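A reminder from the course coordinator: this example appears on the midterm review sheet, so study it carefully.

Given structure:
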């Protein structure tokens, strides 16, 4: 699989701060392969379940956008089936042309041919994409693993308040529901102020803080070492801040574990904890 030559970090704009790994063909491709792990699949299935639930009463066709989509439009089987059957649409938005090329690769086989008919791949930074969108165009905005890449959360909420249709929704996964930053997760280690800290300790984040994520070479195995160059910058936004912004911009809000949003009979026996945010435009 051929990709364009590497874009050097020094040639990237401020919009790319902390996202340099996604502009290296070698690192991006290895990272996309690393995402083929059990936890990533489970989170995608949780999002798929929520998408189906939250779009059940939406009038077809649904216009949706995955914001910061990355390399894997080979997820969300149920929701994509719904879009295809109802003539809906998905904008697959990512700032990195390399990630978009990988996304095309992952749906290049026969299994995903119908998805190609309803997906538009859009090279854009998230806020930039929303600024250029027609008002009340979006029925569903999806942010899996990406809302904590947004520093200016107020602008995101402001844009969604005008770009979402009435009854439109944002569905986002939340990485840090607590201000307590652990030293590592299944797939990555977290650095506080650029430094590692002991496994048996935590660091307390406050609104506006950022932290670095370094990805393990093998998912679930900290002893494997790090995937060279695979690190990214994320921002912490407290539950209080998110709720205040939701109220300020006129959204109904759910913020909590997905199992408190989805009825038990639709959870398919999945017990994994996963924080989610659902904003609904009144």
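Designed residues:
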């Amino acid at each position: 699989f051929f990709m364009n030559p590497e874009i050097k970090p020094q040639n990237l704009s401020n919009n790319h701060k902390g996202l340099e790994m996604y502009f290296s063909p070698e690192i991006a491709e290895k990272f996309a392969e690393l995402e083929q792990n059990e936890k990533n699949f489970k989170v995608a299935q949780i999002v798929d379940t929520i998408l189906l639930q939250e779009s059940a009463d939406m009038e077809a066709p649904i216009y949706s956008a995955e914001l910061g989509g990355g390399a894997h439009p080979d997820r969300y089987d149920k929701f994509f089936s719904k879009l295809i059957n109802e003539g809906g649409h998905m904008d697959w938005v990512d700032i990195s042309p390399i990630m978009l090329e990988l996304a095309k690769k992952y749906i290049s086989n026969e299994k995903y041919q119908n998805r190609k008919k309803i997906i538009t791949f859009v090279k854009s930074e998230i806020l930039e994409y929303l600024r250029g969108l027609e008002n009340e165009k979006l029925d569903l905005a999806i942010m899996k693993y990406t809302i904590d890449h947004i520093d200016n959360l107020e602008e995101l909420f402001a844009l969604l308040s005008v770009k979402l249709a009435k009854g439109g929704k944002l569905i986002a996964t939340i990485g840090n529901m607590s201000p307590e930053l652990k030293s590592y997760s299944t797939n990555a280690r977290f650095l506080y102020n650029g430094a590692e800290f002991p496994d048996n300790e935590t660091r307390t984040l406050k609104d506006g803080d950022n932290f670095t994520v370094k990805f393990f070479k093998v998912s679930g195995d900290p002893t494997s070492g790090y995937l060279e160059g695979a690190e990214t910058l994320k921002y912490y936004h407290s539950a209080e801040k998110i709720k205040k912004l939701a109220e300020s911009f006129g959204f109904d809000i759910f913020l909590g574990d997905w199992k408190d949003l989805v009825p038990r009979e639709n959870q398919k026996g999945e017990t994994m904890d996963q924080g989610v945010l659902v904003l609904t435009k009144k």
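The chain has eight helices and twelve strands. The longest helix spans residues 38-54.
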